[in-house]
Amino acid sequence: MLRRSEIRVNTCLNFYKRKPVIDTNVVLSDKNNILYPSDCRARQINYSAPLFATLKRRFDTEYPESITVKLGNIPVMVKTDFCNLKGLDMHELIKHKEECNDFGAYFIINGIEKLIRMIVIQRRNYPLGFK
Questions:
Q1: How many Cβ atoms sit within 10 Å of the Cβ of residue 98?
Q2: How many whole angstroms separate alpha carbon 10 and alpha carbon 37?
Q3: What are the pLDDT digits (tens) for 73-102?
Q4: Alpha-carbon Rg of the chain, whole angstroms?
Q5: CA–CA separation, 88 vs 35, rounded Å?
Q6: SS3 of residue 109 by DSSP
Q7: Cβ atoms within 10 A of the Cβ of 107, count?
Q8: 121 three-state secondary structure
Q9: What is the pLDDT of residue 29?
C-alpha cells in the first residue's frame, strides 16, 4: 500500500531581490555578469532583477528546512537604489553608454524606455471652482 506524502510550506521567512544580472544562458563578450540599461536597449530585453523568497518547508514528518526559491524577475527603475548605475560618476556613465544628465525614473521593457505617469483630467461638463 502506497502512502501519500505530504508537503507543507509553513512560513515565508523573507523576500529579497538582487541587482540586475545577465542570465547564464546569454553569452556576452563582457567578462562580468552585471547588466546595464544600455545592454538592454541594444539587445531588446527587460532591465529586471531576480526576486527571491526564503521559505520553510517540511516533508511528511521530517524536520523543517529553509529553501530559497526564485519567484521571477521584476523590472528595475533606472537610476534607483537597485540600478547598477547608482553612484557612478560622469565618466563611468559615459563608459557604460549612458547620458550623464539623465534623471532616470523609467523602466526598460523589451529594449524600449517606458515611463509611468499619472494624468489627472477634469471631468467634462463639471464645474470646478477654487477659493
A1: 20
A2: 38
A3: 999 999 998 899 998 999 999 999 999 888
A4: 22
A5: 14
A6: strand
A7: 18
A8: coil
A9: 46
Beta bridge partners of 76: none
What cell was used for 67? Answer: 529553501
DSSP conformational letter for 32: S
Contact status, residue 48 vs residue 108, Cβ threshold 8 Å: no
* Cα–Cα distance, 52 to 99 (Å, whole number): 31
Contact (Cβ atoms closer than 8 angstroms) between residue 75 and residue 29: no
Q: What angle do CA 57, 48, 101 make, to 5 degrees?
A: 145
Indicate the SS3 state at residue 95: helix
> With a threshold of 0.85, does the pTM exceed it?
no
Alpha-carbon distance of 67 to 78, in angstroms, equals: 30
Please report which helix (H) or strand (E) contains residue 65, including its range: strand 65-75
Q: Which three cell numbers stand for residue 58?
A: 517540511
- Those residues whose C-beta lies under 8 Å from the C-beta of residue 102, and which sit 6 or more positions away, are 78, 79
Single-letter amino acid, residue 55:
L
* Cell numbers given for 37: 540599461
Residue 124 is which amino acid?
Answer: R
